[in-house]
Automatic annotation (TrEMBL):
Residues 287-323 are annotated as: Disordered. InterPro entries: Kinase-like_dom_sf, PQQ_b-propeller_rpt, PQQ_rpt_dom, Prot_kinase_dom, Protein_kinase_ATP_BS, Quinoprotein_ADH-like_sf, Ser/Thr_kinase_AS, WD40/YVTN_repeat-like_dom_sf. This is PQQ-binding-like beta-propeller repeat protein. ATP binds at residue 50. It comes from Streptomyces wedmorensis. Residues 22-282 form the Protein kinase domain. Keywords: ATP-binding, Kinase, Nucleotide-binding, Transferase.
Length: 724
């Protein structure tokens, strides 16, 4: 988190410890407009303090909107909101302190645990209706009710984020020609008559939120916000999966005309007498950033960049850290929108009848004529895409319930499989191809396990008692527990080679392995985000070969053809605003070049070919950037209209490939920046599930292997993308 830089003699000028008189204890989250911190009042009351980014503090229009948010939040503070404790919209860095509310958002709950039960859904309906009744009684229209703005607590749901709310008597209206909101949860009048938006728009949003809670998807779903807008205005909602006893009420909430929708009081009356259980919702246990005393916490949603302005440039949300620092997550932008919920993937594979493995294809067969195939894995529940790796003419895949399985890349037949229960979440990095002899797979909480490549016979285990991430590095596998503990094991025997901290590093992030030099790169950003230490170790010994301090918050993302390291420079919102190249040189002493990007990008992945860096954003926007030019230059831009994408991979013939959440595989001609092919969507029971990350496709010879949320693995001909 960048320091807060105030001016003057008051406590705020001391930053980064204070906002007003409140000491900032930890960063709970960040959005496009500011950062949310944990703080405490003089009496010890826990607070969530929103502090505006400095660049917006100078914007009079933003200050007016922030002042309005504070006023709206104060007016509705009560049982169903996070009460405002203090605020200073006129400070050098405007801020607002609300009561800290522990508990997951509805979006997180559905994403991690699937749709709510009918009883939970009725409780949610009643609680949100009562919340809207009180909000509207205070003369406020929320205008952005959505799953990420609903907190689930043991005292019932709470509505948060009044950043674009408008008191009915406010003189600050939406400007003509601009749409502000989250398209999948906006009412028809918000697209057609934004100046006339009233309380009924919140009721329409409530209907969409309830469909999401009941099914894991919204009543109007599309990759494009423009298609969503058309569906909201013209199409009937998709209510499949909504409990029959609630479907008529939800349908009334989603009426096209505001006058045809029930009021919150009418919704509450329709639910009486309460036939559902009276107990409050108990949030499922979940992982969150640790607070000072170890308590998991939630930062109220606060990201104005998640709203769509039809006349503004494409907004870019806070992006995922690259190279594994932060897991990829769905994003909302003008070009592409995916409202994705549900659970992860369950799958199981079984060896052919008789128990004997079938003969795998020879490596040279992979390059022969090919017609394509699809293998659907046994479904054990809601699915997400399996994750695979290719090596030496064989395909290895893992998924929920599957520790590792080998597939014939020519036919897609299962050669052998070994089960390993993965109870929740999508599979982590599925396969380690260690020194070409052994393969290993593990869930985040399971020890690394090796198998024989030919027959799948279990080999060594390398458990340390704590969850670890791992990186193949020549004849070694380097493991990290994420808190500074580092070790390595021999890829053939699993014998531990070393276990110790790394000189000059605290909690380093392993990056890429460079076979010619035999070094594994590392990086570590300083606590205040102002500098990053980059270095490399010898995997067999853990010896630090070199390290160097670079300016800025940087992520290692690749290596150019001349051996220069490529690092992404993260702006204070988490977006990437520049590339930093560390030229080849003895001991990391090469020249450093910083190349500004044309805009701040929400990057999902980077693929490097020679001096050209291909930047794929979470909304499917792809840019080819030439780092050979003195200041760098954009070769081409391509809008693919694909949301929630995988990191890209390069293949022969100037081709680039990436996967999409709905199971599509896309091919791009990098010579001219053109989309040249895409496969059909492959959905689970016709529905789009949720996965926290989308696995990249694999390229081998004349074929490309992809995976899809219907639990399938498939192969297509790389030579004819137009025929996919």
């Amino acid at each position: 988190m960048p320091p807060l830089r105030g001016t003057g003699s008051d406590r705020e000028a001391e930053g980064p410890q204070f906002a007003g008189d409140y000491r900032l204890q930890a960063c709970l989250g960040a959005g496009g407009m500011g950062v949310v911190h944990l703080a405490a009042s003089a009496s010890g009351l826990r607070l969530a303090v929103k502090v505006v980014h400095a660049r917006y503090a100078e914007d009079p229009e933003f200050r007016a909107r922030f002042r309005q948010e504070v006023a709206a939040a104060r007016r509705v503070s009560g049982a169903f909101t996070a009460p405002v404790v203090d605020a200073d919209p006129d400070a050098v860095r405007p801020w607002m302190a609300t009561l800290y509310v522990p508990g997951p958002t509805l979006a997180d709950q559905v994403k991690r645990n699937g749709p709510l039960s009918p009883a939970e859904l009725r409780r949610l309906t009643a609680g949100l209706a009562e919340a809207l009744r009180d909000i509207h009684r205070a003369g406020v229209v929320h205008r952005d009710l959505k799953p990420s703005n609903v907190l689930l607590t043991d005292t019932g749901p709470k509505v948060i984020d009044f950043g674009i709310s408008r008191p009915v008597d406010s003189d600050l209206h939406t400007e003509t020609g601009k749409l502000i909101g989250s398209p999948p949860f906006m009412a028809p009048e918000q697209f057609q008559r934004p100046r006339e938006v009233g309380p009924a728009a919140d009721v329409f949003a409530l209907g969409s939120v309830l469909v999401h809670a009941a099914t894991g998807h919204g009543p109007f779903d599309s990759d494009s916000p423009y298609i969503v807008a058309y569906q909201v205005v013209h199409d009937e909602p998709d209510l499949a999966g909504v409990p029959a006893e609630l479907a008529p009420l939800v349908a009334r909430c989603l009426a096209k005309e505001p006058a045809d929708r029930p009021t919150p009081a009418e919704i509450m009356s329709a639910l009486l007498p309460p036939s559902y259980e009276a107990e409050a919702f108990i949030p499922a246990q979940r992982r969150r950033p640790s607070l000072p005393d170890g308590e998991p916490g939630h930062a109220p949603a606060w990201d104005a960049d998640t709203r769509v302005r039809a006349t503004a440039p494409v907004p870019r949300r806070r992006g995922p850290r690259l190279a594994g620092r932060i897991r990829p997550r769905p994003t909302l932008a003008v070009v592409a929108v995916l409202a994705l919920t549900g659970a992860g993937l369950y799958a199981a594979l079984s060896a052919p009848a008789g128990g004997r493995p079938e003969a795998p294809a020879r490596p040279d067969e992979v390059a022969n004529a090919f017609t394509g195939w699809q293998t659907t894995l046994q479904e054990l529940g809601p699915t997400a895409a399996p994750a695979c790796a290719h090596d030496s003419g064989a395909l290895y895949c893992t998924a929920r319930g599957v520790g590792i399985a080998r597939l014939d890349p020519v036919t897609g037949r299962v050669v052998w499989s070994r089960t390993s229960p993965i109870e929740q979440g999508s599979p982590e990095v599925p396969v380690v191809l260690a020194d070409g002899r052994l393969i290993g797979a593990a869930a985040p909480t399971e020890p690394l396990r090796a198998y024989g490549a030919e027959d799948g016979r279990p080999g060594w285990r390398a458990g340390s008692g704590v969850p670890e991430s791992y990186w193949p590095a020549g004849s070694a596998v380097v493991l990290s527990d994420g808190s500074g503990g580092m070790r390595a094991v021999d890829s053939r025997s699993g014998k531990e080679l070393w276990r110790h901290g790394l000189a000059g590093f605290g909690v380093p992030r392993p990056g890429t392995y460079d076979a010619p030099s035999g070094l594994l790169t590392l990086s570590e950003t300083s606590f205040d985000g102002t500098s990053t230490r980059v270095g490399a170790i010898r995997p067999a010994t853990g010896e630090v070969a070199w390290h160097r301090e670079l300016e800025g918050d940087l992520d290692l993302v690749g290596r150019t053809g001349d051996g220069s390291l490529v690092l992404a420079s993260l702006y204070d919102t988490g977006l990437v605003d520049a590339l930093v190249l560390l030229g080849p040189g003895d001991g990391g002493h090469g020249a450093v070049r910083r190349l500004a990007l044309p805009s701040r990008m929400d990057l999902r992945g980077i693929a490097v070919s020679g001096a050209v860096v291909h930047l794929l954003e979470a909304d499917g926007h792809l840019t080819a950037f030439d780092t050979a030019a003195e200041k760098g230059r954009v070769l081409w831009d391509l809008e693919t209209a694909a949301g929630n994408v995988s990191p890209p991979v390069l293949g022969p013939g100037d081709r680039l490939y990436f996967s999409v959440q709905d199971g599509r595989l896309l091919a791009v001609d990098t010579a001219r920046g053109a989309l040249i092919g895409q496969t059909r969507p492959r959905l689970q029971n016709g529905r789009l599930g949720y996965a926290p990350s989308v696995p990249s496709p694999l390229v081998a010879g004349d074929r490309v292997f992809g995976t899809a949320p219907d639990g399938s693995v498939f192969a297509v001909d790389a030579r004819e993308p137009s025929s996919w």
